[in-house]
């Protein structure tokens, strides 16, 4: 690119009052309507943040050092930026905006940093945890559409920690995937498996995000939960989790993932259900087992997109902005 030929609007007189419009003008050649809009609003809010807080150079430097530390601790299996987004409530907010759910469907929640693509595809009834210290759990679920019809052949990803509160990827000596699997729903929409009862665990807090939590007097714990992700063409992808009602951290999740509709009871496993799903050997230890039942409801892609567009335009109209939907996302309506 010949930089001398680049046409940019003239900018002059940089001061606290003009820097924002000058910066936005310099970025205005961006040919993509959506990224141009997002960048414009980012600069606007970033500058307003500095103006409103009267940000000092020392504080600006502290912020840069913090973000640098967040980046430096990231590895292939440690995603500190997702953790930062989670503890600031941004992950939950973005999921709620991008995957709106009608009342009759299952709500989404944070993905978290521990989903992998390593899970083995297993058949119904598989025990997904190798942890012998965990309390055994039978999980029986259905997946349906908003009209109550079972959905078959949905790819379901499931992941949970071991009994010590660690995901497999957090063990340096791990031997293949553990506490996670992928499975497909049957013709009746049912999928079921054996696992261990989830436990509460702290998010990794030996890095900059942990220091931040300590600094604002927050604990790093997540209430006991099990993650689920649902994928089938034609349906809005659902990333969610279910949470143990009696967990001590149920009302103070470090990453804001808990929603009332996702709180569940782990019940004692009854003999009749055990007889249908457990081996004779497993049934000898019936009293140790718990049962989790949950019915998931997926929204069609079309319904989710319609709801997302309507929510976006209504929210922006309330802010006095005239917008249109472009490639499924709002941009200024300047025509
Ligand atoms: Fe988790």
Automatic annotation (TrEMBL):
The keyword Transferase does not apply. InterPro entries: Catechol_dOase_N (IPR007535), Intradiol_dOase_C (IPR000627), Intradiol_dOase_core (IPR015889), Intradiol_RC_Dioxygenase (IPR050770). Residues 33-105 form the Catechol dioxygenase N-terminal domain. One of its GO terms (biological process) is catechol-containing compound metabolic process. One of its GO terms (molecular function) is ferric iron binding. Residues 112-267 form the Intradiol ring-cleavage dioxygenases domain. The keyword Metal-binding applies. Its cofactor is Fe(3+). Keywords: Dioxygenase, Iron, Metal-binding, Oxidoreductase. It holds the Pfam family Dioxygenase_C. Belongs to the intradiol ring-cleavage dioxygenase family. This is Intradiol ring-cleavage dioxygenase. The lineage of its organism: Eukaryota, Fungi, Dikarya, Ascomycota, Pezizomycotina.
């Amino acid at each position: 690119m010949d930089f001398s030929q680049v046409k940019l609007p003239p900018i002059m007189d940089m001061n606290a009052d003009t820097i924002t419009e000058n910066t936005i003008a310099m970025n205005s050649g961006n040919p993509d309507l959506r990224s141009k809009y997002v960048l414009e609003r980012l600069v606007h809010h970033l500058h307003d943040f500095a103006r409103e807080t009267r940000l000092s150079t020392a504080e600006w430097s502290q912020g840069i050092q913090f973000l640098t530390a967040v980046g430096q601790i990231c590895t292939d299996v440690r995603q500190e930026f997702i953790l930062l987004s989670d503890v600031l409530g941004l992950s939950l907010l973005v999921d709620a905006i991008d995957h709106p759910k009608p009342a009759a469907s299952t709500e989404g929640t944070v993905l978290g940093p521990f989903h992998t693509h390593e899970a083995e595809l297993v058949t119904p009834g598989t025990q997904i945890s190798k942890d012998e210290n965990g309390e055994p759990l039978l999980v029986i679920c259905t997946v349906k559409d908003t009209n109550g019809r079972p959905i078959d052949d949905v790819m379901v990803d499931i992941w949970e920690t071991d009994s010590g509160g660690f995901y497999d990827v957090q063990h340096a000596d791990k031997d293949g995937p553990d506490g996670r699997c992928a499975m497909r729903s049957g013709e009746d929409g049912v999928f079921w498996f054996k696992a261990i009862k989830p436990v509460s665990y702290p998010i990794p807090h030996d890095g900059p995000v942990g220091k931040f939590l300590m600094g604002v007097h927050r604990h790093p714990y997540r209430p006991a939960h099990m993650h689920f992700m649902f994928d089938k063409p034609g349906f809005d992808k659902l990333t969610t989790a279910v949470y143990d009602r009696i967990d001590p951290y149920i009302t103070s999740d470090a990453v804001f993932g808990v929603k009332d509709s996702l709180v569940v009871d782990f019940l004692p496993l009854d003999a009749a259900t055990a007889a249908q799903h457990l081996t004779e050997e497993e049934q000898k230890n019936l009293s140790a087992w718990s049962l989790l039942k949950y019915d998931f409801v997926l929204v069609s892609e079309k319904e989710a997109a319609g709801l997302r567009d309507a929510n976006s335009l209504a929210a922006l109209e309330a802010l006095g902005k005239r917008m249109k939907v472009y490639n499924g996302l709002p941009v200024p309506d300047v025509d």
